[in-house]
């Protein structure tokens, strides 16, 4: 055989071994007579032209592509086939081959002898004589019309599908938005109605309406998220957040519903899990809340345990797994994967009994995929389920201020007794968070053994009223009867109070009786009251039984002076304290604070450290030097600077207590009422839910709801909306003047308000501006300002969009 065939980018190209003199139309062919039949079998056109662009050879495939026999094209101009609008490009491409280059996979459009357009792919190379001179070209032509049409059809189909998906997503988003607006109004008015005087039947009806409205709004949120994901309009945020605080907040919110069903809930964050990560905390919270919420929904007894563990470093990332184990109804093996499909639940019976859209898990898995992870499930029908969320994020550990124990609870040791490990763990976490030493026992016998075996005395035994074998009251009686344990104060916790329990507690000498669920602030305040009562009690005088009602009744109503120049922070502190029953006076600078203390009879002063006219340090010094201040009114330092040394500096300057913004209600109440001091917290401010929601409204509502003032959120955000533009103008003016002190002061005040309403990204940017101005790097502060302005606009647009119904519990 006289020729070889080789592949060049999917086009077969011939390489003649000789140039026999077989003629077609008077020209030589590149093949011998014995080989020509093989070339004619090829589906691609094999062609050759001379240096005047005339066909000198074509195989039989030319008839299928060009609509003409080889004898009809040989001798004609090769240029005739090219269409006018591409002719210059095609000629230039072939001219380069005449110059010595090769042409590979060159696509163009030609017309055949009948005038029909065809898309073809050329391969060409120079043809040289014995001296190396280019005397023509040779190559292949492949008809790719069918392939191109198929590709074009697929492209059009894809574009049509994308337009349809975009239209569907836009329609769903618009529908969700339009329905959300009146729904927020409905829910807001329901809250107003529930706060009014209603009889029992009216209240039940209003509660039913609210439950239905919350369910409908949850459905709308699912549909909106699903439509955004479908339309690829959802983007993840990347910001620094505290995974410990995030998990704690999710579990604490869900624990209320769990306790109402007598289901215990606990969480365990393994020691090697980094506290701070970079990612989208809002979407992380959404997925985790969905998994925990499902566990609560489908669990009627037993427990729910959330575990956060580290999978190990993956390059620069951290692999994190959050597992949610429940003792609920479980899922059959043949339905394990289908539950992640859109609008699907494990069974029709489940859907009817428990409700829901079937979108939650589908959205959760898609969000997990966006976070380079997945959601998986292990379950057996009737034996509970374990859902595991795995994600990849970047660790963002920085030097943080260690948590300092609350002086009121320093040295206090509490034994927590209960048969449910989850319930014990939650209580131990609350107590341990303020520096209380805890130990655990699961029944009466182990509790007695532990109390007798401990080297250090236990001060309080916190006992669940329902214990295996003998109940908590029997254990209390046993402890009181033994001389070795009679000094231990007993607190009884119960999930369902019974008539006569209070009298029974008094007869047994129980110090406190609380019904679950009990809030963090109520539990800590009860512990503080019990300890103070035991310190004051004598052999002839026993302390009164501490109950939730007695705590409220005995709580001293204080005159509190709030010294704060930011209207947003004024609104937060005053609404929480007034709901607590305290009287509040507000001043906005240190000079007025000194005057107010000198002329008034305040029980405590809540003083921001950085103030206009006279800062908090100067004001405190002036108050302490005032004649007649021998009684020494307590002054609480309030600051957003959670850095090492600030607390000690405040206490050394004459402040009595310390509170870090943003604070939780129990921290504020402890600092103001004196049953605990504020502490330097190592957590960061909550991060925004997502790029479309630059304010973490849920976290703000949750914090205000814990203080009983969720309805104040509307007014709080309204104050920010009215005040923020002026703050922004002041900051911009200071930047334009390149005045570092003015920039520092303006950024600090603005940042404080942003932290309070949970506009965390804006707060982070303002923090950068403030620190750079303090360091004298005004140019760096100027560079950050465009991003500050963009985030400020995003916050204001968000607040404008949600209108006046931001305080609803949606």
Radius of gyration in whole Å, from Cα?
A: 38 Å
Strand element count: 27
Output mean pLDDT: 77
Q: How many separate helices? A: 26
Instruction: State the separation between the terminal residues, measured CA to CA.
Output: 82 Å
Assembly state here? Answer: single chain
Major β-sheet annotation: 7 strands, mixed
Beta-strand fraction estimate: 15-25%
| Uncertain regions spanning at least 5 consecutive residues | 1-29, 343-357, 398-405, 536-541, 677-692, 804-810
Structural class: alpha/beta
Report on the architecture of this protein.
By secondary structure, the protein is of the alpha/beta class. The chain has 26 helices and 27 strands. Strands 10, 11, 12, 13, 14, 15 and 16 form a 7-stranded mixed beta sheet that branches. A 6-stranded parallel beta sheet has the order 18-17-19-20-21-22, sandwiched between helices. The chain has a 5-stranded antiparallel beta sheet with strand order 6-5-9-8-7, sandwiched between helices. Helix 14 links the parallel strand 20 (489-494) and strand 21 (512-515). The protein is elongated, with a radius of gyration of 38 Å. Residues 1-29, 343-357, 398-405, 536-541, 677-692 and 804-810 have low confidence and may be disordered.
Notable characteristics:
810 residues; elongated; alpha/beta; seven-stranded mixed β-sheet; six-stranded parallel β-sheet
In short:
By secondary structure, the protein is of the alpha/beta class. The strands form six sheets. Strands 10, 11, 12, 13, 14, 15 and 16 form a seven-stranded mixed sheet that branches. Strands 18-17-19-20-21-22 form a six-stranded parallel sheet, with helices on both faces. A hairpin with a 4-residue loop joins β5 (45-50) and β6 (55-58).
């Amino acid at each position: 055989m006289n020729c070889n065939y080789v592949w060049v980018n999917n086009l077969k190209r011939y390489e003649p071994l000789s140039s026999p003199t077989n003629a077609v139309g008077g020209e030589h062919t590149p093949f011998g007579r014995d080989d020509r039949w093989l070339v004619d079998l090829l589906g691609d056109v094999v062609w050759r032209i001379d240096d005047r662009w005339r066909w000198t050879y074509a195989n039989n495939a030319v008839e299928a592509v060009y609509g003409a026999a080889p004898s009809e094209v040989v001798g004609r101009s090769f240029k005739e086939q090219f269409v006018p609008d591409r002719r210059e490009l095609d000629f230039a491409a072939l001219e380069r081959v005449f110059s010595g280059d090769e042409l590979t996979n060159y696509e163009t459009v030609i017309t055949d002898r009948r005038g029909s357009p065809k898309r073809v792919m050329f391969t060409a190379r120079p043809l040289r004589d014995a001296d190396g001179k280019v005397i023509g070209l040779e190559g292949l032509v492949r008809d790719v019309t069918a392939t191109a049409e198929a590709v074009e059809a697929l492209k059009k189909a894809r574009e049509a599908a994308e337009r349809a998906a975009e239209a569907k997503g836009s329609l769903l988003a618009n529908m969700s938005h339009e329905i959300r607006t009146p729904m927020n109004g409905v829910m807001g008015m329901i809250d107003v109605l529930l706060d009014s005087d209603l009889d029992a039947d009216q209240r039940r009806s209003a509660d039913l309406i609210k439950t239905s409205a919350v369910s409908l709004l949850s459905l709308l949120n699912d549909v909106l998220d699903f439509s955004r994901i479908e339309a690829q309009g959802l983007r993840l945020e990347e910001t620094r957040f505290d995974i410990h605080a995030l998990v704690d907040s999710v579990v604490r919110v869900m624990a209320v519903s769990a306790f109402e069903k007598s289901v215990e809930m606990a969480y365990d964050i393994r020691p090697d899990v980094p506290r701070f990560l970079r990612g989208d905390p809002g979407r992380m919270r959404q997925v985790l809340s969905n998994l925990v919420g499902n566990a609560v929904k489908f669990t009627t007894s037993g427990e729910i345990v959330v575990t956060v563990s580290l999978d190990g470093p993956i390059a620069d990332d951290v692999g994190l797994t959050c597992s949610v184990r429940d003792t609920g109804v479980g899922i059959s093996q043949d339905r394990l994967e289908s539950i992640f499909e859109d609008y699907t639940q494990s069974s029709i019976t489940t859907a009817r009994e428990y409700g829901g859209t079937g979108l939650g898990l589908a959205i959760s898995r898609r969000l997990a995929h966006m976070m380079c992870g997945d959601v998986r499930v292990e379950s057996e029908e009737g034996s509970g389920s374990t859902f595991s969320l795995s994600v990849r994020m970047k660790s963002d550990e920085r030097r943080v201020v260690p948590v300092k124990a609350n002086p009121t609870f320093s040295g206090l040791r509490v034994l927590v007794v209960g048969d449910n490990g989850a319930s014990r763990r939650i209580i131990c976490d609350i107590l341990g968070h303020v520096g209380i030493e805890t130990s655990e026992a699961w029944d009466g016998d182990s509790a007695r053994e532990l109390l007798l075996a401990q080297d250090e005395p236990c001060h309080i035994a916190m006992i669940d009223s329902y214990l295996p074998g003998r109940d908590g009251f029997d254990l209390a009686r046993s402890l009181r009867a033994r001389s070795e344990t009679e000094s231990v104060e007993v607190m009884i916790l119960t999930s369902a109070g019974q008539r006569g329990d209070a009298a029974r507690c008094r007869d047994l000498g129980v110090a406190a009786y609380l019904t679950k669920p009990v809030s963090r602030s109520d539990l800590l305040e009860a512990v503080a009251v019990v300890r103070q009562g035991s310190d004051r009690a004598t052999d002839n005088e026993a302390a009164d039984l501490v109950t939730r009602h007695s705590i409220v009744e005995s709580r001293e109503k204080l005159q509190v002076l709030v010294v704060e120049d930011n209207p947003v922070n004024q609104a937060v502190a005053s609404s929480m304290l007034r709901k607590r029953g305290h009287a509040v006076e507000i001043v906005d600078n240190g000079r007025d604070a000194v005057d107010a203390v000198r002329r008034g009879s305040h029980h405590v002063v809540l003083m921001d450290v950085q103030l206009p006219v006279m800062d908090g340090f100067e004001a405190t010094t002036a108050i302490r030097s005032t004649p007649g201040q021998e009684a020494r009114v307590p002054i609480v330092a309030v600051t957003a600077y959670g850095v090492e040394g600030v607390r000690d500096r405040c206490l050394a300057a004459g402040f009595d207590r310390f509170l870090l913004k943003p604070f939780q209600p129990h921290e504020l109440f402890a600092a103001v009422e004196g049953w605990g001091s504020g502490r330097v917290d190592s957590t960061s401010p909550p991060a925004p839910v997502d790029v479309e929601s630059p304010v973490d409204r849920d976290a703000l509502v949750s914090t205000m709801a814990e203080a009983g003032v969720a309805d104040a959120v509307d007014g709080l955000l309204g104050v920010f909306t009215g005040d923020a533009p002026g703050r922004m103008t002041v900051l911009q003016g200071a930047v334009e003047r390149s005045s570092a002190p003015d920039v520092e002061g303006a950024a600090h005040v603005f940042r404080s308000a942003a932290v309070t309403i949970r506009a965390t990204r804006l707060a982070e940017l303002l923090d950068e501006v403030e620190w750079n101005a303090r360091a004298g790097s005004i140019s760096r502060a100027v560079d950050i300002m465009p991003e500050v302005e963009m985030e400020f606009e995003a916050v204001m647009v968000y607040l404008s969009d949600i209108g006046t119904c931001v305080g609803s519990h949606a």
